Amino acid sequence: MQNRTTVERMSDRELVVTRSFDAPARIVFEAWTKPELFRRWWAPKSMGMFLRSCEMDVRVGGGYRLVFGHDDSQPAEFFGRYLEVTPPSRLVWTNDEGGNGGPVTTLTFEEKGGRTLLVMRELYPSKEALDAGAGAADAMSEQFEQLDELLATL
Hints:
Blueprint: E1 6-9, E2 14-21, H1 25-33, H2 35-38, E3 50-56, E4 63-69, E5 76-86, E6 90-94, E7 104-112, E8 115-123, H3 127-133, H4 140-151
Antiparallel strand pairs: 1-2, 2-8, 3-4, 4-5, 5-6, 6-7, 7-8
């Protein structure tokens, strides 16, 4: 069965992305929280991007820093801190690279029959911030396909 990524604007400030994965929640959670796994699927390959560095201290109050780039471009940094870490069902973090304009991201992992439904909610501080950041959701389908490929090997 083909897994499909859906992206839906729930309000002026909230974007919700859903996807089912053919793996137990524990494994999907690890792919989001272990740097050695995360770096293998997060950067969209079609854009020629890769993670130059991936630092993750996945605990309440811990932080993350992701540095993306192309071979010939200025790197882009994404960073924030973890607000909630409940393995293997829930993960919440801030996106601080935009100052106060970044969303808070909440992931829930719901397992049924060895499959995991991932629901990703991004709550932005304003409609303008969501409008500015919504383009990143376009890459999620490719990223989640790459995650599917990784999960098949674990």
